[in-house]
TrEMBL record:
<keyword id="KW-0175">Coiled coil</keyword>
<protein>
    <submittedName>
        <fullName>RNA binding protein</fullName>
    </submittedName>
</protein>
<feature type="signal peptide">
    <location>
        <begin position="1"/>
        <end position="19"/>
    </location>
</feature>
<keyword id="KW-0732">Signal</keyword>
<feature type="coiled-coil region">
    <location>
        <begin position="78"/>
        <end position="105"/>
    </location>
</feature>
Length: 162
């Protein structure tokens, strides 16, 4: 009986010491990111995550200490940041396209409309309207670019953490 208990303890210790990393597979199924312990598709992306030492975790929890394993959370946050950056880049592109379209419409200014705007000439009216458009779109584009910069810095910080 004592030999059996000793054998079980030895096998348990070997199992705990071998569990240093966890491999997870990421697949996109019908547009939804899916995580699995086994390959879920032919194009499955392998993700290796650090595993928490169970013995240390139990010891710390018994001392009322908080153990946090943020590797999965960091990975998911980086993925969300990348999606947010893509959305912001699309928003900038939309602003630029809208600005170009409105600027082109302003270029079709007539003398009658220029007179109604109080301009001395069509060129003055076009310059005034273009400046108004620029004041409208430039801050929106700059704000989106600043958000991209902040997200990129946050992403770099998360990627640098061990």
């Amino acid at each position: 009986m004592a030999k059996l208990i000793l054998l079980l303890c030895f096998l348990g210790a070997c199992t705990v010491s071998m569990a240093n990393e966890v491999t997870v597979f990421k697949c996109t199924i019908k547009g939804v990111p899916t995580f699995s312990q086994t390959p879920c598709a032919k194009d499955a992306k392998v993700i290796t995550l650090k595993n928490v030492n169970i013995m240390q975790t139990n010891a710390l929890q018994s001392e009322n200490a908080l153990v946090i394993d943020t590797s999965v959370d960091d990975y998911l946050e980086v993925q969300q940041i990348e999606r947010d950056i893509v959305k912001l880049e699309l928003k900038i592109k939309q602003y630029q396209q809208e600005y170009a379209q409105k600027k082109q419409q302003v270029g079709y200014m007539t003398q009658d409309k220029a007179n109604r705007l109080g301009a001395d000439s069509i060129a003055d009216a076009i310059a005034t309207e273009t400046a108004v458009l620029k004041q409208r779109f430039e801050p929106q584009i700059k704000q989106a670019q600043q958000q991209i910069t902040a997200l990129t810095q946050k992403k770099q910080q998360l990627n640098q953490q061990p």
